[in-house]
Amino acid sequence: MSDLAGSRIIILGLGREGLSSYRFLRTQLPEQELTLADQSPSEILFANFPEWQAISRQDRNLLWQLGDQYLENLANFDLIIKTAGIPVTLPAIQQALELNPGLQISSNMQLFFDRCQGTIIGVTGSKGKSTTSQLIFDILSQAGQKTVLLGNIGRPALNYLSVIDQETLVVAELSSHQLAELKASPQVAVLLDVTPEHLDYFANFEQYLAAKTAITRYQSPNDWLTYNPALSGAKKIAQLSAVRPDHQIKHSLVDQSANLAFQVFIKDETIYYRESNQPNQLRKLMAVAEIKLLGRHNLYNVLSAVAVAQIFQVKAASLRQTISNFQGLAHRLEFVADVDGVQYFDDSIATNPTASSAALHSFPQGKIILLAGGSDKKLDLTEYLESIIEQKVKALLLFPPVGPKILEQLQKLWEAKGLTADTFPQYRIFQSMAEAVQQARTWAKAGDVVLLSPACASFGLFKDYQDRGQQFQLAVNNLITNQSTKSKSI
What we know:
The protein is an alpha/beta fold. It has 17 helices and 20 strands. The protein has a nine-stranded mixed beta sheet, with helices on both faces. Strands 15-16-20-17-18-19 form a six-stranded mixed beta sheet. The chain has a five-stranded parallel beta sheet with strand order 3-2-1-4-5. The longest helix is centred in the last third of the chain and has 25 residues, at 465-489.
C-alpha cells in the first residue's frame, strides 16, 4: 500500500462497496486521514448502514462529506475511490479532473485487480451473469478447487483479498459499472450477451457496450476467453481480446459437430464437448432434460460454465453432477409456492426487458399473471411488450412509475396489431406488493402462474431487487398462512 500512503483519498459512495473499501484502506493505512462522501445525510446513511455510525465514533481520522455537499472539493484529492454506481460523467467529477490533471479515479474492483494473487474468472453480460457466476463457482469448488465468488453478486471484492493466494480461482461477476473505468482484464473472460441496459446511467447502448469491453481489452495471448459467436454483443467484445485462438472456447445452442472451432454445443437435446487434446472426438456430457433451471435462455449460462470447466479440466462426472443439482439463484425464476393449484415464481432479479422476456417464455401461453414495473432505467420496452402479447398474459399488476408506462405502450401496440380491446389483459396499478399479490390470487385459477418479473429496477417502493423479491415471497406465504387459518376455523 506504499502507493497510497500519504495520498489525499476520498471514498465516494458509502454503500456495501464503500464500506468494503474503507475497511481495506484502514487496515493498510491505520493512521491516515480519509474522507468519506455520500449523497445521503448522516441520519439516513447511519439508519441504512449502522456500521458507519459505529465507525464515526471510533475512527477520529475521518472527514465526512454527506448530503448535498458530498461532491464538493473533489479537485483537492489525489485519489477518488468511486462506488461503481456513481457515473464518472457527473459534472463535479469532470470538473475536478480538469482542475487537477493528476487526480486518479479507482474503485473497489480496481484495487482488488491490482493486488489479487489468484486467477480471476470474470463474468459479464446483460442478463444471466449472476446465475453463470454461481454455477461456475459451484462447479470448480465441488471439483476440489479453492474457489472464491465475489463482485456484483453482492460481495465486494476487497472483502476477500486476504483469503486469496496464487492457487485460488476467483469467480468475479462484473457489471458494466464495475468495468467502465477498470484498467485490467481477468485471466478468464466469460462473455454472455450484451443487450440495451442501464440507459439511465449510460447515454446510449454504444456507451454501455463500450463500458463492458474492459473484460477483454487488457487480456494477453495466454489468457482465456469463452463466448457464443451467435450473440452479437458478446462477439464484438470478444474481438477486442488478444487471446490466441486455441485459448478461445466457443459454444453454441445448435449442432456444431462438423465445426472444430466450437468446443461446446447442443445436439439432439444433449450437451457435447471436445477435449483440447482430442478435438475430433466428441464427448457426451448430459441431456438438456437433466438441467433443473427453468427456461431455454439458461442454456447460454450452462454452456458458459461448461466451457470454463474445460479450461480447468473438471472431470465429466463431477461437472454433470453439479449442473444437474444446481437449483439457480434466489429471486431468479425461483419457485415460491403452490397455492390452490396456482404456482408463484419470484424473478425479481430480472431488472431489464430482455431478462423478463426470457422469463415469460419459460411458461405456457395464456397462463401467466404478471407483476411488472418499477423505477425507470430508460430502456426500450418493445421486446417485453411483444412477449406479453406472444405469451397471452392474462393479467397485469403494475408498480409505478414504469407500470403506467408499460400499460400505455402495451395498449398502443395492442391497437397497432389489430387486436380487439376485449382480449386485453386485466390490469391494475398498485402501491404495495401485498395488495398486488392478493389481487393476483383473486384473478388466478388452478393451472395459472403468478410471475414477478418486473423488467425494471426496484428503487422507490422497494430498497432493491432482493427486498422486492422478499416482499413478494412474504405476501405469497401469507396467502398460505391465511388459507391454513381459515381451514382451522372451519
